[in-house]
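Recall from the previous chapter that SMILES is a line notation for molecules. Here it describes zinc ion.
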Amino acid sequence: MRIPIKDEFTNLAVSRQRKYQLRKQRDRRCTECGAPAESASRCLKHLIAARERQRARNKPRKRYLGTLSYRLEAAFKP
Ligand SMILES: [Zn+2]
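With both inputs in hand, we obtain:
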């Protein structure tokens, strides 16, 4: 049997997925894939995916280009 993780999230009354997300956030990693994520809760790929998911749901008329995911996108893509 594998040894269960014992940390500050072990006894929280939240789902296993939420604990995974909280642990990744604490370790400054993407909450979806575990890749390094320095300035946000997700890596750039998943930051963009999450943004576009919300865009599809909320159907906003404008894009706020000052948002972190747009700034990172501009910085990393030529
Ligand atoms: Zn990711």
